[in-house]
Amino acid sequence: MAELTGSILILLGAIFLFSAGLGMLRMPDVFTRLQAGTKASTLGNMLVLSGVAFYHPGWSLKLLIVIYFVLLTNPISSHALARAAHAIRVPMTRATVADALRDARETDQGAR
């Protein structure tokens, strides 16, 4: 039963990792690519590592630490990359309706 659960978790994780790669190819600009890649790869990695924990119960604590590390660093690195791309004025897709970061900066500069 543990092997079946582990296999299902690994398969689900692989599906999410595949969708992250597909999202990186299909999305129109750097900001949506970052979002698609980060969310799906974070969940995919967590599922794969959880599945491996079912196969190797002795590794569970180490895998939990790795899951925590992935959960902590993936969103932070994505956020830093998005802020850097925005700072060097990487163009957004034409379908983008709002730029909240630009609006916040304009509001801060207007208050000074």
What is shown here, in short?
With 112 residues, this protein is mainly α. The chain starts with a helix and ends with a helix. The chain is elongated and about 60 Å long.
Offer a few descriptive terms.
4 helices; elongated; mainly alpha; 0% strand; 112 residues
Mean pLDDT: 92
Fraction of helical residues: over 70%
Order of helices and strands: HHHH
- Biggest β-sheet: count, sense, barrel? none
Q: What proportion strand?
A: under 5%
Radius of gyration: 18 Å
Number of helices: 4
DSSP strand tally: 0
End-to-end span in angstroms? 63 Å
The domain tally reads 1
Q: Give the overall shape.
A: elongated
Low-confidence stretches: none
Structural class: mainly alpha
Question: Could you explain the architecture of this structure?
Answer:
The protein has 112 residues and is mainly α. The chain has one domain (2-111). The chain contains four helices and no strands. The chain is elongated.
Q: Helix and strand layout, with pairings?
A:
Layout: H1 2-26, H2 30-55, H3 60-87, H4 100-111
